[in-house]
Amino acid sequence: MLKEFKEFALRGNVMDLAVGVIIGAAFGTIVNSVVNDLIMPLVGIVFKADFSNLYIPLSEKVIAAKAAEPQLSLAKAKELGPVFAWGNFLTVAINFMILAFIIFLMVKGMNAIKRKDATTTPAPPPTPPADVILLTEIRDLLKSKA
């Protein structure tokens, strides 16, 4: 059983998948940083707001706390009651769009490389079966005698 597991785990597909998952996780943290540390601050400057703290209070307790303290953070508001955290959702949606676009570009590049390889190395013509070769030789012999 251990031998079978070792064969399964060391098969090329499993190792490729493991590498892909690890690189994907690391890539996700880079995209998170780009969105949270570079893009959202620029959006915040344009709209004069920190999008991660934008929310709509859904309970009287949160509404009263927001009236008393207009800069009430999302974390404190969540402690007081339910909120509609649309700013956080917007940040996550932008994060997803950037990640999806980058993956699209990577797949598009790989497809272009595959197409280039397919056009540069044409497949050799298949060799005909032995009976077809024999019949061709017989035909050629008959033509030469006639």
Automatic annotation (TrEMBL):
Membrane topology per record: Multi-pass membrane protein
The keyword Lyase is annotated on this UniProt entry: no
GO MF annotations in UniProt: mechanosensitive monoatomic ion channel activity
TM ranges: 12-31, 83-107
Keywords: Cell membrane, Ion channel, Ion transport, Membrane, Transmembrane, Transmembrane helix, Transport
Superkingdom classification of source: Bacteria
Subcellular location: Cell membrane
Function according to Swiss-Prot or TrEMBL: Channel that opens in response to stretch forces in the membrane lipid bilayer. May participate in the regulation of osmotic pressure changes within the cell.
Family the UniProt entry places it in: Belongs to the MscL family.
Quaternary assembly: Homopentamer.
Protein name: Large-conductance mechanosensitive channel
Organism: Chryseolinea soli
